[in-house]
Description:
Elements: H1 2-15, H2 18-21, H3 31-45, E1 51-54, E2 58-61, H4 68-77, E3 110-113, H5 124-137, E4 142-144, H6 152-157, H7 160-167, H8 171-182, E5 188-191, E6 195-198, H9 209-213, E7 233-236, E8 251-253, E9 261-263, H10 265-275, E10 279-282, E11 291-294, E12 299-302, E13 316-321, E14 327-332
Parallel strand pairs: 1-5, 2-3, 3-4, 6-10, 7-9, 10-12
Antiparallel strand pairs: 2-13, 5-6, 8-9, 11-12, 13-14
Amino acid sequence: MEVIRALSRRLLLRLVQPKFAEPKRRVPFLSIEIEQVLRGTKHILITEPMLIEMRPPLIIVGDIHGQYLDLLHIFEMFSTNNRDISSKKKRDDADDNPAGENWNGFICENYLFLGDYVDRGPRQIEVIMLLFVCKILWPRQYGLLRGNHENAITNLAYGFEQELNYRFYDGNALWAQFNNVFAMLPVAARVGRRILCMHGGLSKGMKSLDDIRRLKKTGAQRVRCDARPGSAVERPGAWKRNRYLQPVFRFSKNHKRNAGWLFGENEVRKFCARMKLDLIVRGHQCVQNGFRFFCGRKLLTLFSAPRYAGSGRNIGAVLVVRRDGRLSIRQFRAINGEDPGPDRYNKDYCDGLDDDSNTKTGSSSRASPPPSQPPHLSEKLPG
């Protein structure tokens, strides 16, 4: 494992070099290096439960979808030059920095990612490799959840397999190995015992957090999208006006995607009360302002891929959970120069661009502030 850690340090330094941050299809690593990183990541993930526990302070990041420059921008926002949530003293829980390197934003804070790292974007391999390298170097600081695109059936259809084959002669073999590692990712995380995070949302059969803990990690080819809390839910049905969906008060089948369930305010309130939660945080759904509240701010949708799939209309956001439990949202715009990806993905995937501004989601219909003026919620969690 020490050999893989040493390789990961070298790859991290390579990945953040300016020449590899250019919007080119340059390959900053070899197939054998990818295989070693996958081996090291799987070695760590296989020991993690399906429901991981994390503690504040930390940054919660929504869908990335191969937007590498925007991922680097997130780390830059929380670098040593832009400290936001940690104390001024050096963190005492950083796992490994034996050479004393300046890793900038990578170990300044804890990070929790909600899934959907690959597909649709132009730099999917760089995104997932950067996150896996960080997981190897600082396993306690980085929580990586599984999204519905970390699934062989999905990422075969939406671009990940194609990008691997375009950039590597052994792309099919690498694609299979990536999906074997994806199958080891946890599906949910609890932050400070009061915030529950997952990719998609609530599952109809989930009655307690033990239901998540009891889930078994399965092989890549056996995973079903509707078998896991998180990726099993399309969206709360009350988010769309009735011309699209009737209001959902309990659970209703998601006929739009033919997978998963829709859920409404009643289920969110009951679940939060039963689990003693203050907030549920999910990704999975592109929203115009990068975030959207639902059910009296009991549920938050977070999306961190600005200008998603070349739409040019949404901005990204991350959730900051401070040490004392206060919450704030940092919004940011897309980094100029990134290729939006293949033409077949350049369509409007975002919700809330036209008809959701007056729904009960808690999001504002006014123009979003620039990244230098984030809207601070300043909400302290009770207890």
